[in-house]
Structure formats: C-alpha cells, structure tokens
Amino acid sequence: MQYSSDAPARLAADHGVAEARPWIVAIGASAGGLEALQRFFGALNGPTGAAFVVIQHLSPDHRSMMAELLARHTTLPVHEAAAGESLQAERVYLMPPGVLMTIEHAHLVFAPRPLQGLSLPIDAFLHSLAGSMAEQSIGVILSGSGSDGSAGAAALRAAGGYVMAQTPESAKFDSMPRSVIAAALVDAVLAPEDLAQQVQQLTDGRSSRALNGDMVGEAATKPALQRLFEALVEQSGIDFGQYKLPTVMRRIERRMGVLGCASVSDYADRVAQSQEECELLRRELLIPVTGLFRDPDCFEALGELLQAQLRQHPANQPLRIWCAGCATGEEAYSLAMLALEACHATQRWPGVKVFATDVDARFLAVGSAGSYPAGAADTLSPPRLAQFFTRQDERLQVKPELRQMVLFARHNLLEDAPFTKMDLVVCRNTLIYFQAEAQERVMRRLQYALNVQGLLFLGGSESLGALQGDFQVLDSTRKLYRLTRPVLTALAVREGFGRSTLSLRHRAVARGAPAAPVSSAVDTGERRLLQAYVPLSLLVTPQRQLLHAWGPTERFLRLPQGQPNLDVLRLLPPRLGTVAGHALHTALRDAGEQAQPPVVLELDGQVVSVRVVTRSLPGEGADPAAVLISFEEGPPPGQPGAGALADPAQLDRVAALERELAETRLTLQTSIEELEAANEELQAANEELMSSNEELQSTNEELQSVNEELYTVNAEYNAKLALVSALNDDLDGMSQATGIATLFVDEALTLVRFTPEAMGLFRLRPADVGRPLTDFNVRLDYPELTQDLRRALAGGGPVERTVQAADQTRYLARVIGYGRPGARRAVLSLIDVSRLHDAERLQRLIDSLPEHVALLDRHGTLQQVNRAWTEFARCNGGQAASTGVGSNYLSALARSDDPGAMALLQGLQQVLDGSRPQLRRTYPCHGPDGERWFVLHASPLAGVDAEAERGAVVTHLDVTPWVQGTAPAPAPLSEDNDA
Questions:
Q1: CA 244 to chain CA mean position, Å
Q2: Where are the alpha helices (DSSP H) in 329-473?
Q3: What is the DSSP-derived secondary structure letter of residue 360?
Q4: Alpha carbon distances (Å) from 850 to 432, 866, 931, 954
Q5: 186: Cβ–Cβ under 8 A, 6 or more apart, which residues?
Q6: What would the pLDDT profile of 203-228 be if each residue is shown by its tens digit?
Q7: Overall pTM surpassing 0.70 (yes/no)
Q8: How many separate helices (H) and strands (E) can be counted in the chain?
Q9: How far is it, in rounded angstroms, from Cα 69 to Cα 37?
Q10: Which residues are catalytic?
Q11: Element (H, E) at 70
C-alpha cells in the first residue's frame, strides 16, 4: 500500500482555507431546545473562530424572545439574521420567523415559508451548507420533536462536514436527536455542554495538530495504516486496503481531529484499545451517499430502456434486478418503483424482484425498515409519493406492496460470489472508492451476474474499464450499457474473472499490428509466403478458444456437428486434439517453447506425421495471455529423417481420458450452476428471515411507543371533536338562516334534528328528538310521507312533491337520503311555494285574456307578458330577444321608424316616472293579410309606493272591426291625441 505523496500539501492547503474563513456551526433545535441552547452556549469559553447559526421551528406570527434569552448565557453577540448578511466569527445568528433560510457563498439567503405542506427549515439549511462550504461546517442537532434535520445531516456528513447530536437521554424531546443518529453517521453524541467543548476543539485549531505529527512521514505512517487495516478486517471482515488511499486518509484525519490525536500511530493505538472506536472508523469509511431517484434524468432514461426490455422479456420469468452497494435502500426502492411503472406502461407483468445488497448491515437495517425522513420526498413526484409511501408523523413509510419486492442482504463486492441471471445490475458511485485492480475485479463480477442483453447502470464518475468490448454503450452520458458478451464460465470467474475473448482478440491484434501501413503488394507477398511455408498455427486463449489461424487450416480443422464452438480441441482430429490439449496445458504451466513427439495421422488419404509445437505469449501479468500452437508436418513413418513416434495406443487411451474428463467437467459445471442457484435461494430465504426478525424488532419498538401514540391520538380526537362542534354550530346557523322547515330522521324514522320552522307543522318540541316520526300528528296533506322517507333511506333517488297544509299553504316537499350503508339518514325539507303558486295562477289568468298584456319595470324592461302578446309577436316576425321577457320595450320604440313612435316613447316614459296618470293611443298595425288597428293603454302599477318597484301595465286591444264599421264600438275610448 502506497501513501499519497500529495497528502501533506493537501492538508496544508485545507488548513490555510480554515484560517481564511470562519467555521460555520449550524444548530437545529425545536421543542425543548431553549434549555439545550442555553446549556450549549453557556459552556463556550474564549474565542471560537466560528459563526453560530440557530435554526428553530417558529410560528410566522410569533415574536421570538430567543435573542434576549440566549444573551444571558453567552458573551457572544446574539441577533436576528438578515437576508444577504455575511457570516462573521464570534457571532450568533438567529433565523427569523416566517422564512426558510439557506446559505450561498457564506451569505444568508431568505425564501418565503410555504403556506401549505411540510416545512423543514433545519434540513433546508443543512442541505445548502453541504453544497457550499461543508469542509468547514458542523451540524448540531439538539432537542426537538419530529425528524427535521436528519436528511440534511446525512447530506452534510456525506459532503465532508461534521455532524453531532445531543444524547436522547438529556433531551426533553428526543425525536430529532434519535432521527439524526439513525439516519446519519454522527461524529459525537454528547450532552449540550460536552457538545460545546467538542465543537470548540474543532473550530479553535486544535484539530490541526495532525500536521505536526508523523502523518506527513510515509515511513512512520505505513505501519500504522497497516495496523488500522488489520484491526478493521478482524472487526468487520472488510479489507479497506483495497480502497483508494486518499479517501481512506481523509476519513482517518476526521476521526483524529474529533479525538485530538497527533499522529496516525497514536490513533492506531486508540483503535487497538477501543472496539467502539474501531466500529466508528468502519462506519466513517462506509458513508452512504444515496437518495430516492437521485439524478432524475438518468432514471428517466433507464425507465425507457426497461420498457423496451420488458417487451422482449418472457412472461413466465421474473424481472431480476441487483442493486449493488444499495446503502440505506433508497436506490433499491427507486428501481422497484421504476420497474412497476415500466410494467404498467407496457401492460406486461412478469413479476419484479430487486436484490439490494451492501457490506454494512446497519444500512441494510434502515432499508429493511423502509422508513425515511420527510425530506427524502423532495425528489418524488406527487403521484409516486401517494402511490408508494404513507406519512407517519414526519417520516415516509414504504408501503408493504413495494417493500415485498425488495430483498436486502449483506454482500461484499470484493469477496463474495456475485448474484446470477440478472436483467439489470445497478452499481452507482461504489467503484470510485476502490483501487484500479479492485475495480476491474468487481466489474468482472457484475458482468458475470448479467444475462446476455442485460442492462448495466453505473455512476457518473465510473466506466467499464477493460470491459469496453463486452458491452454496448446505450447512453454514455448517463452510464447505461447492455451486455453483449458474457463471461465464459463460472470457472473463469473464480480464477479472477479472466479477460473475455473479444478483449483478448483486440489486444492480440494490437500487439501484432504493424507500426506503419504497407502496400497491398507487400501484403499479398506476405500472405503467399504464409500459405506456402508457414505450418498451421493457431492462436489460442487459456480457455482453448481460437483467436486467429495461419497456414493450411482446411487441411487440419474440421467443424463438428451441433452448436458452433471455437474450442480448438474440438476442431482438430481426435488424435491430434489430444496431443494439442496436452501441449496447451504444458505451455500454460511452463513458459517458452515446448515440442511434443510426432503423431501419425491420415489426412486426405495420406499418412503423415505431425509434431505439435507450442509457444506461450506473455500477458500483462505473470500468466500468459495466449498460446501459439503450430502443427509441423514431418516425413512419413519409416522414411529417413522420421523421428520417434508417439505410441498410438497411448494416444487413444489419452483421447478416451480426455473425453471422460470433458464429460466430468460438464457434469461438474452443471452441479456448480445448481449449487449457485441453491445458494441464491438460500440467500433469499435468509434475507426473508432477516426481514421477519427486523419486523419483530420493529413491532417491539412500536409497542414501546404505544403510550406516546395514545397521547397523539387523544389530541387528534380532541381536534376532531372541536371540528364536529363547529360543524354542528354551522349547521344550526344555516338552518336558522334559510327559514325552511327541515327534519332529519335515521333508518328507524326516529327524529334526529329539526329546525324551528318545522315545529308548527309537526307539533314538535325540543324534547321530541329521539321519538319516532310516526308518533306526531302532521298538519300536512301528505299521506306518502313515510313511504318517501323509507325509499330515500333504502338508497333511492330524491323525491319531490307539492303538498298543502291545513291553512291552505302550499309546500314543496323534498326527501333526500345520505350516509353509508348501515348508517343511512334522510332529510325532509318543506319549502313554502304559496307565492310561486299565486304567481302561476296570475299568469294563467292573464293568459286567458284576448288583449295583449305586458308588465314593464321602471326602466321599460318587460317583466311579464301573456300568451296573446307572445303569439302576436311570433306571428308578426318578432324575436324573443326583442319582444319577450327581459327585452326593453322603450328601446324597441326608439329603434322603430314609425312617425308616431317617438311621441309614444315620451308618453310611456312619463307614465313610468309618475308624471302622467295614463296613456291611451290608437295606432295602425297593418300586416300582409290586411289592415289592423290597435288601442294602446298604459297605466302605472296601482298601490306601489316604493321607487324601486315602480312600473306600468301596457295593453294592446284589437279595434279593427270598430274602425272599419263592421262591429259596434267598444266601451268609450277617448284617445290622447296630444300624446
């Protein structure tokens, strides 16, 4: 293991930055937080080199006294923060009410607090702190209820900041500290006074003592690091020596700063003496960085690929997905949701199983519980949130149907065998922590896990490496690939995931490629020489796969029946294949050139002797990358120059043994695959047992919190009772305001509620509530009352009838049923329609008159007309918009081209404004069927005093027979000629 040569320079640079700007200490507190804040600031002594920002849950309309209350316990200036303010050391900033405060470039930024939905101000500030200046930031979570701060603390911790929490035992309300401890790896869990000392130790420069120790010297650091790695392997079984050294060193520096260790050797001694510190270091090195639908555009592209894959997926096989390095499970649940959405989009339901694995059992416990802070919903769309999650207090709980799709299991990518037969493998932002050799080993395992045409989804900073030729690039930006050439056998996997055939072919061709292009004549000459003088030579992989051939291939190579195969031993004649197999094994074991005794063969009707010569070609490591096998023909047996031949009987015996060995290998391979399948099922069963055990533990925790939940339920019931009381008051007020007689009855026709207007109709008293309605003497002619009520209670539609009371008052009776089955009720409302009935009678009366009658309001608008008026207008081409109710009679006169229309208009206006008692005028109205004369008579409404109700009655009387002298004159009519 090599120590990074730039570590001292980087540490010095970091230290310089720390001196250039103050530390930011973000303190989140809620219920019971005032006492904790007073204890925290009361324990600070001397200069701190930090700016303190206090974030609380404050009511928008409440004037906070926090500045005055905290100022009594600290010498630091305490004031309310202002928008755009830059943070300065040795000051305390308080978040004002009614805003969400974040930080950008060391300046405070305010945004309005949302009027609806959940507000998480602590999460918002810590998230912004993680994105701007995490390296010199400390998040402290004190007493409070809910889970605000947990998601932000995890983000700050992942970005390199420090996170600390108050001990739940010392907090008045322990929900926030417990939530943060469960969601993020905290650097310290202490009482408020001890938290203050720990913060000051980090901010006043004492943690930089590591620069003065042996940490900058490689000779002293290497043995200490080796001791740390050995302790971690012994404690957790994880070899962190295969992780990138700069990343490991940064995490070790963090723990050294928290503990105040001056050197790596001191810290190694501390780890050796404390099992707890060893566990904290392991958790420090395994920080989960994940979220629901992290990088949404990548998941959108993956969803489209899943839909295309589902259309080709067999219906009787489940869709298998492996989420490697799942951390706390958010990404595994995201994949399950994405798969369900793809199934719904394609209307294909093969069944979905997501295998979520990680090396840390603590993270798997969080994922198995399926409970996340409410802030995790920021990347979820409202439909996804409603379909797959439920809210419990201030947390998101995965619904059971989604949880059952995901199997959580502990798995070490560097050590454990991979899963198999996967349609999709997701390994994002995990490989970046490994060294190059470990990255390639893990990629071989992921390749082996995939089915042919399976999908691979990597992180933004990860690549295929040496496997470029085995995958098809689907989206290089989003790191989406499809497997086109799988790992050959499980044996190759266990031997280190040997290179694929395609990759070897590319490298072999690359090594044999000429340095510069040559002419076609030279190429032709070389090809002729190879054909004439070079013996059959085959370039073969250690797995016996043919890569390239030179010489007379048609003389020796035969394509066997069955599935095509490039196994060299199957392409050669049996006796020659036996010798070639032995020669290949010898070449792989011993470097250099190896020759075998000649073997006698009959080729094309001729008996020849063939000698097999092998030459191993060196690879990148100690093992050969390929072997060159040459078949040199010699003189036939018995001729001069023929050497000693191999024993034919022995060769036949070796061939038989080779065939038996091949069959044994095939049987062994089948057994291995069956064992792997059985092992996978056992892993699934073990995960189910673990899940059941976790559910039992969760149930135990739920039972312990029943008392607290009962208090919450009681408060909710009180709120609901207050709401019901308010609704009852609103209903009573509405009933009194409408003035409508109303009765409410239940399924037994028992009186439930009634309005005061119903008391007279049914002879009711307030004490009659609860009595059957049939006990009362109804003052209505309504024999169908009971029948209508029962029909409405049975689920029938609304019933309406007109009924009459004893005093001849008419009512519109309406019966409506409502409620759920088993708790149905009916309401009877009686609306007084006597005036409406009288209006209808009046209309029928004026409709019976032959004269044209119309009622005008004070503006000349037609309010009511009879049938004779309407029929006359229709027969003479009038439109309803200009002659019917709602049209203006005066406007019609004003638009008329009749010479007497203006005089008539002025007379009607005088009648309407009360300056004229009446108006009578005879006028011609000739039609296409003859001449006609009418008498218009207008008089104001009698007995009307109110200015707003002023109007006039206008009648038109047909006097054509009188004018033409064909009928006696009607009653004397004196015409107002001066009108």
A1: 32
A2: 330-346, 361-369, 382-388, 400-403, 436-449
A3: -
A4: 100, 9, 19, 14
A5: 153, 157, 163, 164, 165, 180
A6: 876 543 333 333 434 455 777 788 88
A7: no
A8: 33, 35
A9: 10
A10: 30, 57, 148
A11: helix 66-71
